[in-house]
Every structure is written in C-alpha cells, then in structure tokens.
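Hey, sorry to bother you again with one of my protein questions. A protein chain has come my way and I'm curious about its shape. I'm sending you its amino acid sequence along with the backbone structure tokens. I owe you a coffee for this, so here goes:
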Amino acid sequence: MTTSRQAEVVAAGIATALLGGRWRRREMVRRVAVALDHARAPRWVGTLVGEVLAAHRDAPADRPRELAAFLTTTEGWRKGQATSPPPRVVRWRPAAVAVVRRPFPVAVLPDAAALARLLDLDLGELLWFADPRSLERTSGEPLRHYRWHAVPHGSGVRLLAAPKPRLKEIQRRLLRHVLAPVPVHPAAHGSVPDRSVRTAAAPHAGADVVLGMDLEAFFPSVPAGRVRGLLQGTVGLTEPVAHLVTGLVTTVLPAEVWRRVPVPPGAAAADRHRRLGQRLAVPHLPQGAPTSPALANLVCFRLDRRLAGLAAAAGATYTRYVDDLTFSGGRALTGDRFAARVTAVVADEGLRVHAAKTRAVGAARRQQVLGTVVNARPALPRTDRDRLRALLHNCATRGWRTQVRDRDPATFRDHVLGRVAWAASVDPVSGARLQALARRIDWT
C-alpha cells in the first residue's frame, strides 16, 4: 500500500491527466494510462473514469484538487491501491484551467502565471511567498516572511505579524485588485472605505440599552480553509489561484516564537492562552497584514447577516467593528437570553465570544461604543476631551516642549494632531473647537 503522501501525489497526477484533454471516456482512460506509464490501461482505470464521469458531467477544470480528493473515494481507486505494485504517476501534461464566472469586477486570474504577472513576480518567487511547504513555522528569522511581536492585551497577549516589505506590497496589490471590489455587509464598519468608528457608533445613539460583545482571538480564528473557500466561491478565483492567494495572505506562528510567550496567570486567562496557541498553530489570517481586515469582513458576511436578522427580530440595531459587536434597542437586550443567542450564532460560524467582555448598559449610565459615548450622540468621554483640551492649551501658551514628558519629541506633534483628528472624526462639533486650539500652537 502507498503512504498518504504518495497517494496524494498519485491522485493529483491522475486528476491532472484527466483534465489534460477532452472530457471523453476513451481519451481520459488513455491519458491516465500514459501518466501511469502503461501501454494499456489497467481495468481499475476504466472503473475509476466511469465513476468520475458519473459524478462530473463536465470537466471540473478549475478545481483539480477537488477532483483529486474525489478520486480517492471511488471504487476504482480502491482497486488500484490494492494492486501490486500500487500505481505510480510517471508523467502527465499540465491541465487546462477554465476561467470561472467572476461575480465581482476583480482582476482576471485564470492561472498562476496571471497571478505572478499581477504581483510582478516570477513563478519561483510566487511559490516562495505563497509558502506551500509551510516553511514559515520552522525557518529562522532571516527566511521568515513576517516579523512577530507579542503585545500584552488585557489579561492575555496579542501576537502581531508584520509582513516584510515585499510580501506587504504583494498583499496590498491583492487588496486593491482582488478583495476591494467585493462588497462587505452593511453592518461591517472596521477597515471599510467611507465607514469609521463614528458610522459604527452613530446607529446606537440615544438607545434605551446598548449591548457590547467581543470576539475572542478574531484574526487567528479565521483559518486558511475558510479564506480559500471565500476566494474560490465568492470572489470567483480558480481553485489553483485560490490556493496560491490563500498562501500569500495566511501564515502560521513559528513554534519558537510561541515558546517565548509567557502563560498569563489565572485559570481563565491560561485557558484563552491555550486556545490562542491552537489557532496560531494552523494557517490563519495574520493580525498585521494589509489583507486581513478585508478578508475577515468578507468571511464574516454570513455572520453579519445572521446577527443583523437576529437584532431586527428583537427590534434592535447591529453593527460590527472588526471584533466588536454592538447591539442597541429595548429591554429585550438586558437579559441573558439575547446574549446567549448571539453566542450560539457566533459559535456556529466558527468563532467564539469573549464572555468576560459582554456588557449591557441602560440609558441611565454612560453607554460606550468603541471608545465613544453614545447616550445622546457619538462623542469623546468628557475626561478624554478635557485632557486633550488642556494639553492643547498648554502647548499653545507654554510651548509644546513643556508637555512632551516621557514621549519622543520627534513624534510628539504627530501624536497630538492624531488625537485631534480622532476627536474630530468622532464628534465634528467639539472636534472643530479642538482643531482651532491646535492651530494656535507654534511647532517650531
């Protein structure tokens, strides 16, 4: 009997031979015989081809891996594996690749050569960056495509993966030509053009109850299989191209990096840490890649649709900003029942709610969404606004250098103006006043 890896190679070779010409029984049998280096096809080949034709009226030319997987389930394959010696593929011609219907105006990418041209790579470089052999997990730092950083986050840790310059440019091209043309759900607001924190928070202003829920380890929870299915089924890429693009936008945390991450204290935090390690150990969306937010939004389209429907049934409103889920409405949101139903939907979509961060707040208390207060309209918390106003006043009257304290003077101006821009994006009225104060500062 052949090993699992040998069987995969044989199945892939037979599938490629089957797709290498006309979808006719006699010609298909002959091509498989040539691939197996037989002058005459064994009887089991005829059985296998018959089963393939019964299951596929037309050649699945854009799905060779799917065809290879089907071959291993057939009676003909079982008979072939029982022969001595078992079949071995010697040669085959490249299969023709059909162009699938493109439901959105994405780049036309019928094969690997077209993908390489789009990304300005040769085929060798394309395979190196797509990493089909999963070398990222075992390679040393110089050969890795990402720089990993462990950042403390709450009671746990967040693993950031910064793609190195060439891969980052590749991902930006994929974002621009392949992902950006595909629309996301109206409830998604994070990393979506013309949407922002304000657009995510504004629908909840003035509600009787605001319910906030977080998703645990959001990006690591999106595995490569879901990305590949999205690219092939929704975006409309051919199967071979979808596999390559998936390799370009997903990765695996190197074991050496994970061993250096300390386990946080506390049973609940340690349990989350264990789950995070399991997610990072398989190909997933890296937090830090330009393509990850867009892909996560597209993968979550069905989740957003289901949660929007659940909210509408309860007379509530729903928005999602990356991993933050927000619902607003009446008293139906205050009990545990609604949150439990949301948790069940999230689990059914392959994700997990961070239960410790679930909070329902009534109108009598300060209702916060994404760092903004929404009791009346989206606005900065008063303490944050007052501190920023005082900082700007002191910079204008005493000189900005007196306010630097422990910050880097070279980046202090960008830090201050960034806070002002954030405030203006959340609340244009008070933001305009803060911008007027910022214009009084002499930055020389």
Observations:
- The CA atoms of residues 361 and 414 lie 35 Å apart.
- The radius of gyration is 27 Å.
